[in-house]
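REVIEWER CHECKLIST
Item 1: Sequence provided? yes
Item 2: Single chain? yes
Item 3: Sequence as submitted:
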Amino acid sequence: MDSAEVKDDAAAGSAAAPAQDEKTEVAKDFFVAEGESAGDAGSKNEEEGTLKDLPEEELDSRKEEVNLSESLEGVADEKKGGVDWPEKAAALKNFVKERGIVVSKVIRRLSGKKEDLEQAVETHSSEDPVKPDEKKQRWPTLSFLKPNVPNEQEPMGKSISEFEDEMSVTGRITLFSKSGCPDSKAVRSFLRTKHLPFVEINLDLFPQRGLDLEERTGTSSVPQLFFNDELVGGMEELNLLQQNGELDEKIQKVKENPCPESAPGLPVHSEEESENAVPDEFAEVVQKLREKVQLKDRFLKLRLYSKCFLGSDAVEVFAEDQYCEKDEAVEFGRKVAAKHFFHHVAHENLFEDGNNLYRFFEHDPAIATKCLNFFGATNDLEPKPAADVAKKLMTLILATYDRYISDDGKHVNYYAIATSEEFRRYVKLTEELHRIDLTTLTREEKLSFFLNIHNAMVIHSFILYGRPNGALERRTYFAEIQYVIGGYAYSLSAIQNGILRANQRPPYTLTKIFGAKDPRLQVGLEKPEPLIHFALSYGTQGSPAIRCYSPEGIDAELRIAARDFFDSGGITIDSEARTMSLSKIMKWYSSDFGKNEREVLHWIAKHINPTKAEHLLSLLEDSNVRVNYFPFDWSPNI
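Item 4: Structure as written out by the authors:
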């Protein structure tokens, strides 16, 4: 995490709680809220008055806390009475370690993590420190969030076991498709309605399989559906079979008969990945630099930086390798630094001679320990143009969303994504983000790229670490889930508030995400884009629908996303009570939409359907109209 984000966290944790009750309630609910400290104030008296009403397991927990305090006092008394203190030291250490779970339960209870009270808490003693290169798991895993069968999809009168038996297929159903194809989406939805598992061969991901499709069907058009080796066709053919009463027979046949060798083959992991990998022009000299410079922990302005090297040492290596004078070696070093192989530890300059401190990309603690797309080594291949990498990522993300996210974008099959070929390719492709040049992207390209990356990061993190529970964990989650992009670490909060909101302060914090010297400032948008709040997903039910965004149509796509958000419950209007209820998103980021509540409502009126907009504006003529904000739904979008 960079220094600016550390400052933000510190400010968020130490700032006083809002004075008004409404603000306090909102702050408690938000992922970077300060409501934890506010909620603690006066809680002692409140708890004493309600101890008798607590569940039995919580009462047991409180008793353990009291026993812990009394036991420690007893040890102190024994010391005063002449008991040999060294003999008690080891026992006391073990006792405190064992009872640490009690303190953890209290903290978890305060942060709303009631469902996790019974889970074991991982602790590290002084003899078992956390390794610096170890990615720490800060909340329980999802177990891949195995999806439950939605009630509306479960056949009436059937148990889950009977339902799973019905889904089992001995043969194989294969769908040839393309990303964003409406007909492919229709066939996919049809198969889901019938609860039929299928293998999808997306020709955008496997273009060479188009030859196989043409040989089998005589056409390259999609969708094309196969039951084992029998061609069924597209949506039109499926409807015809259903009308003629022949579809159920074909489904039963593929369920009972194993898949023959003549059926379309499964996608192979190595397919379409044989690209010409070109080493970076500076890769060889950087390798020499890694071998020759002395890496040490060094101080700069009273702060200790680990694994640094001096600019003067690097100049000697460059001069020796390039057979040049020092001035030329410094200029050469700047070219190397501009390719993000190393940076100044405090971002004070690009590269200079002397006692300036620099650190290799892979030795930055934020990158080495927190970035999900860093796997122990820097990608030393020649960086591809950022727009090309963004396009490849968009293709993969769109294919993944089409296959594993519900049609309305509100439900994600995390388990299926985690075990999919699309996700494997996506993770591999994120390595190409290491050293790309983000400054070459246009506004539209930045918008679509960072929106897609943010939502994909959420899915990636849920698969690896699970979802955070409670405000404390959410605060950690949004600050510490990161990707390394263009040489620097970007957290979810940095993408939303630093890039897409043009470095605006996150809600309920005192400082901005990026400091004045932060090189990521030049990547951010010139001004905030309010519509991004209806495209960013937090992996929750209260978030907007997940979509894939393109640079060509980004503005229109964002307007559609905003209208869909409001039409699906983002705003409700009660004419009789003269009350409007809004999503908490409109409260957290109100400054992006207007200077006051009425300006925010006028902004909303421009982005909802005309009928509702007319209704809203008529209510605004009354000065007594009241605005409420309904609680944000943090439950997972499974």
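Item 5: Key structural point noted by reviewer: The longest helix spans residues 85-110.
Item 6: Recommendation: ____
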